[in-house]
Amino acid sequence: MEGPSGDGSSASTALEKWKSDFTRKFQYYLDRSTPHPLGRWLGTIGVASIYLLRVYLIQGFYIITYGLGIYLLNLLIGFLSPIADPEIEGLDGASLPTKGSDEFKPFIRRLPEFKFWYSITKAICIAFAMTFFSVFDVPVFWPILLCYWIVLFFLTMKRQIMHMIKYKYIPFSLGKQKYTGKKAPANSTQSKY
């Protein structure tokens, strides 16, 4: 039984304060990393390299790597898909333009770049932590998993590319678009002297 000093409540209050401070500081650094996509992605590539090196050196945890690959493929599809998918939502006015005369609507991703990066990095860190527990090291024949993942990747990407072609959108923009003005029609009545 707790005494009048309330040691149990002070311990829980201290834990809540630490959790709140940690969450606030973590969010502060996450917000500061937002305008630096190159640095964020290089860090994620570094973490992924360390994870792959660990899996290679241990010669195990292939089922964890396969699950990670499936999750990353799912994130990639969300990153490449528009927020208003014409196939799912029907053509009720909120669709992508399919003709040149349609109104321009910018491509808005279903999964924004920052959330895409954050989810990938978090998934790799969780998979890395799982490699320290032998209960997750299920013995499997890894070449079959690798072949199955490659087939799944190509079939999924083929479907996504066909969707992009059908609805005429490109999920990447290379710089700011510039207005070049109307092109003058070619005069066929000019004489060639």
UniProtKB/TrEMBL annotation:
It is a multi-pass membrane protein. The chain crosses the membrane at residues 38-57, 63-81, 140-157. Signal peptide: none annotated. It comes from the Eukaryota. GO terms for biological process: protein retention in ER lumen; retrograde vesicle-mediated transport, Golgi to endoplasmic reticulum. InterPro entries: Rer1 (IPR004932). Keywords: Membrane, Transmembrane, Transmembrane helix. It is found in: Membrane. Pfam families: Rer1. One of its GO terms (cellular component) is endoplasmic reticulum. Belongs to the RER1 family. Involved in the retrieval of endoplasmic reticulum membrane proteins from the early Golgi compartment. This is Protein RER1. It comes from Dendrobium catenatum. The lineage of its organism: Eukaryota, Viridiplantae, Streptophyta, Embryophyta, Tracheophyta. The gene is RER1B.
